[in-house]
Specification:
Chain lengths: 787, 261
């Protein structure tokens, strides 16, 4: 029998998927070439806002190798791309939901909007033919700027003449006003959360094929959630029977949120594949990724924090304008509301919070969730204003935070969440050691000796993962369930295939989930395979977003495993001639309690599939179980970050010298993978703070449309990071005690970096700077104060 | 996408004849500027005249007085050249900082100079070191070679064959990166030569240029402090989303000072 081995949970085992990724045998959407393959190319709008007077596709249709050209007129009968969350305005009215056409219908509303689809024998021929399409545009004024979009003289949509999608609020406005009236001190902060362009390594791609044999479709697509893609596309847009579309998301090279959404391109491809009668493939060029992948962030906010004489937070008041872009992307509406304002308590026991969010349409690329999705925006605002308050009051910023920490759990915040557990003092104390804060003054002196300004910044973040439960989310406007599904298929030899509705596009599910399954069933890692990303294989799924995979998807697997074990006990009881209640399961063995009479997991599996000696009258053969898991609450990872920067005052260049992190993710299955997630998240956060900033000109042309002008962080921009996973406070409401780790780094790091920059510049009188703190911007800030 | 003729001449004369006969043709050296421009649809030449077969355009010769680099010599070859490292280390260091390894292994000094990208590194070295640009027709002095944005003194059909750098007493190049592209937001090359101090600036204007005020100040006293108080007028300098003309003007003496000491 299996020797008892050390648990796999908690061990940094190597990733099972890395062999294929590192040796080039992964299979991405663009690798898939189907018999009779044809290629699609999208003609896109060169204008941010224009009326389409006419489209002449005749010459393109006649061009060599062209199979078809489709425009908005051809697709007029189908639905628009739906938005998955209904937000209601303060006055009770529903948000404005303008039609989001698959191909432009009469008006284009952002540069890059898809105007026509050309299908040809090769992508080069399709692209060449697209250049022959004559579109007569009447150029209209464009609305670009977030802050001035509401009430702009130009309307992006007739349905929203003032460009306001909704004005939503949360919290007790009167109680907040009363608290402000009592305040000994009020700190005010205006800030911008800069728009970001996701840039997954693999561009979006799709390959759609129709089968005449049974009038069904298969779509290969770079998706984080193939079942959601299928449901939205069939039920809301194309009007196809859901069971006639199989969506496969094979290996996917990064998403960061940008591949959650139902996009126009794959929808048009599925629709066209039947008309063309051949499979159609499209792979975005990098320039198309910049123009059409949903962007992230883009908030303009004003915040006020009221404090009493002892530095206790009394109330927080926030007004935010959030840019939705030209159309509502799939989850756009819930990001600056449900996933943002609810997080404004952070780690603090602020008794009253009120937040108003105005969402506006502009002639820019749609904005949706991007790694962190609302929570980085909340954390940035809160951690900036807390640090500013500390500076204004002359209190140590660490001390001010400690004075306001939540210390009793569960804790209900004034913005709708109940934190189940946490220990903020633990992660803060630990990170101060990791960062060697005690040695900071000496390092600052050393920097000064070199003519450099050193600063230190802190950030204490909280994250809410595993958006849940479905019924409460539904009451808040969600149009989807928020559970996850799993199937555990035990084969006759005792090997196991697990099907999860969660999707891995870099997170390492095939390893982490296998560790959980192998430990629970007493198997080796090699005996367990994790399958995901195919609606033809996996029963259902909501996919991967919001750091939910382990907490929600992993728990669904555990629930299915429990059913397997329960049935296994019945089989074992029969074979061992005992009662079910006397059988226990441990280390891969079913044993009659207190005896050495036992059956291995493999023996039970074999008995289930070769049921010769089997209770057929009371028990079905086979060993295969499904589970759906709907969490009862969010999970609440939290942690503390410390950043040290060195600024060259002559050039304004900021160098991140040290970055330290202590994160509480609850129980950790694979520390190596989790640390990798934190590294990547911090890299993206440093990118947002110092390098990345999407810029449009006033005509709505994207100025940062390539890597020549959009600065992604490179290895050389990164410090050596001191990352430590705290022993942690396990989540109280899922069996794994897991909280989620995917977004934490990107959530917690930007304010730590900017607080450090401002600390370094404080002696010069600089009190504010917006992200990204580029050398030019830092130099400008220094110069402004030097005058 | 349109058809494009491809020529691979086996002599310099044949290359020049091809270039003269077709004004829409482009000379292909390392292709590190021309190919990306074509991919972006900014350029659609009728033909390529690939210089790859002209071995005489490749190679490095150095003596005590000068370093001569064949036009088709790659940045990587310059960066790793022991004679250059010994004679003009700043030139090797400059070459080692161009683009990325892929660019350095394809891109050539002749291609870079003929292109006159406003943010390219080599033009600063050519101007500051008072190099001579040899072509199939003549020898051109560095001063006056860079005429403007992607504009040089080269005539139609004229092909750079080599660049000769006099060995300076000392020289240094300091480059401040544009954060996204890592091209020079501003790059300053300072050289103390037998004919005086020369300071050349790239990244800041339409093409590389000399900074007279700094040359004068450093000519009087070759020390970092000499750059203090020198202000460069921002007029005619570049403004873009990464930097204003004022910021670029500010950086020039700052970087010059660092180049000196």
């Amino acid at each position: 029998m299996n020797a008892v081995r050390a648990p796999l949970i908690g061990r940094s085992v190597e990733r099972k998927e890395d062999y294929r990724f590192l040796t080039g045998v992964g299979r991405y959407t663009d690798d898939i070439v189907l018999p009779g393959q044809s290629y699609g190319y999208f003609l896109r709008s060169p204008h941010a806002h224009a009326r389409i007077r006419s489209i002449d596709a005749g010459p393109a249709r006649a061009a060599p190798g062209v199979l078809a050209v489709f425009t908005g007129e051809d697709l007029a009968g189908i639905g628009g791309l739906p938005c998955g969350w209904l937000i209601k305005s303060v006055d009770g009215s529903p948000m404005k939901e303008p039609r989001h056409p698959v191909l432009a219908e009469g008006v284009v509303r952002h540069v890059g909007e898809q105007v026509a689809l050309v299908v040809a024998d090769s992508s080069a021929l399709a692209k060449a033919a697209a250049a022959l399409i004559e579109v007569d545009y009447e150029i209209l004024p464009a609305v670009v700027d977030t802050a001035s979009a509401a009430g702009h003289s130009t309307s992006v949509h007739e349905l929203a003449p003032d460009n306001v999608c909704y004005t939503w609020s949360i919290g007790d406005e009167a109680a907040v006003a009363a608290a402000f009236a009592q305040a000994a001190h009020v700190t005010t902060l205006e800030l911008v959360n800069n728009r970001l362009i996701p840039n997954a390594l693999e561009p979006r791609a799709a390959n759609a094929v129709h089968s005449r044999a049974d009038d069904s479709y298969t779509l290969y697509v770079t998706s984080q959630n193939p079942h959601v893609e299928r449901l939205l596309m069939t039920a809301f847009v194309l009007g196809l029977p859901e069971h006639k579309l199989r969506v496969v998301a094979p290996d996917v090279g990064g998403g960061f949120g940008s591949k959650i959404y139902l996009y126009a391109e794959e929808t048009a491809l599925v629709w066209a594949s039947k008309r063309v009668g051949r499979p159609i493939k499209w792979t975005a060029e990098r320039s198309e990724s910049f123009l059409t992948d949903a962007h992230g962030r883009d908030h303009v906010s004003t915040a006020e924090l009221a404090l009493d004489a002892q530095g206790h937070f009394l109330a927080l008041r926030v007004r935010t304008t959030a840019n939705m872009g030209a159309y509502l992307s799939t989850f756009a509406s819930c990001i600056p509301t449900i996933l943002y304002a609810t997080l404004l308590a952070g780690q603090y026991a602020t008794p009253q919070i009120h937040c108003t969010v105005q969402a506006v349409f502009t002639n820019t690329t749609p904005v949706d969730a991007y790694r962190g999705a609302g929570r980085p925006e909340a954390t940035y605002l809160l951690e900036r204003i807390v640090e500013r308050a500390a500076r204004e009051l002359g209190v140590d910023p660490i001390e001010l935070r400690r004075r306001n920490f939540i210390r009793k759990f569960p804790h209900a915040t004034p913005v709708g969440l109940t934190y189940d557990t946490g220990d903020y003092e633990a992660t803060l104390s630990r990170v101060l050691e990791l960062a060697d804060v005690a040695g900071y003054p000496a390092r600052k002196r050393a920097s000064a000796a070199k003519g450099l300004l050193r600063g230190i910044g802190y950030s204490c973040y909280i994250e809410a993962c595993g958006l849940a439960p479905s019924n409460i989310a539904g009451a808040l406007g969600a149009r989807a369930g928020l559970f996850e599904a799993a199937e555990v298929r035990v084969h006759p030899t005792g090997k196991v295939t697990v099907f999860t509705g969660s999707h891995s596009h870099g997170q390492g599910h095939e390893t982490t989930f296998a560790q959980v399954v192998a430990d629970r069933l007493g198997l080796s890692l090699e005996d367990v395979d994790i399958q995901h990303g195919d609606t033809g294989k996996v029963l259902f799924g909501m996919g991967t977003y919001g750091s939910r995979s382990l907490a929600v998807g992993g728990t669904a697997i555990v629930k299915a495993l429990d059913k397997i074990v329960s049935k296994g006990k019945k089989i074992a009881a029969h074979l061992l001639e005992a009662s079910d209640a006397d059988v226990e399961f441990e280390h891969g063995e079913f044993r009659i309690t207190g005896t050495d009479r036992k059956k291995s997991f493999a023996e039970i599996a074999l008995a289930a599939y070769v049921p010769h000696n089997y209770p057929l009258g009371t028990l079905e053969p086979g060993l295969n179980e499904n589970a759906f898991y709907d969490p009862t609450n969010f999970t609440y990872p939290a942690g503390s970050y410390v950043c040290e920067v060195e600024i060259d005052p002559q050039t304004g260049h900021v160098r991140v010298d040290r970055f330290s992190a202590s994160d509480d993710f609850g129980n950790v299955i694979n520390p190596m993978i989790v640390e990798g997630q934190v590294h990547g998240g911090i890299a993206q956060g440093i990118g947002q703070a110092l390098l990345e900033g999407c810029r449009y000109n006033e005509d709505g042309q994207l100025l940062t449309g390539s890597f020549t002008d959009y600065a992604l962080p490179r290895a050389g921009d990164m410090p050596v990071m001191a990352i430590e996973l705290a022993p942690g406070t396990p989540c109280t409401h899922n069996p794994l005690g897991a909280k989620g780790c995917g977004e934490a780094g990107a959530i917690g790091s930007p304010p730590a970096v900017i607080n450090a920059v401002l600390d370094a510049l404080a002696p010069l009188g600089v009190t504010d700077i917006d992200m990204p703190a580029t050398p030019h911007r830092v130099w400008e800030a220094i110069r402004r104060h030097a005058r | 996408m349109s058809a494009i003729a491809y020529h691979r001449p086996s002599s310099l004369g044949e290359a020049a004849k091809l270039a003269e006969s077709d004004p829409e043709a482009r000379i292909l050296a390392g292709g590190q500027s021309v190919l990306p421009s074509m991919k972006l649809g900014l350029l659609a030449p009728s033909a390529f005249i690939d210089l790859a077969a002209l071995g005489e355009l490749r190679g490095i010769r150095a003596n005590r007085q000068s370093v001569t680099i064949g036009a088709m010599t790659t940045h990587a070859a310059v960066a790793e050249s022991a004679p250059i490292v010994a004679a003009i280390p700043s030139l090797a260091q400059l070459a080692s900082g161009i683009g990325d390894p892929q660019v350095r292994n394809r891109g050539t000094i002749g291609g870079s100079l003929a292109n006159s990208d406003p943010a390219a590194d080599y033009p600063a070295a050519v101007l500051a070191l008072n190099a001579t640009i040899r072509t199939n027709r003549r020898a051109l002095p560095a001063d006056g070679f860079f005429k403007g944005l992607f504009e040089t003194a080269l005539l139609p059909g004229e092909i750079i064959t080599a660049v000769e750098f006099p060995v300076p007493n000392r020289a240094a190049y300091v480059k401040f990166h544009q954060p996204a592209s890592r091209f020079a937001l501003v790059g300053v090359f300072v050289a103390q030569t037998s004919t005086g101090v020369r300071v050349a600036v790239t990244g800041a204007g339409a093409c590389a240029f000399r900074a007279k005020a700094l040359e004068d100040a450093l000519g009087r006293r070759f020390a970092p402090q000499a750059c203090e108080g020198i202000s460069i007028p921002p007029e005619n300098l570049n403004t873009d989303i990464h930097a204003s003309a004022e910021y670029r003007a500010h950086l020039i003496p700052v970087l010059a000072r660092r180049a000196v000491g």
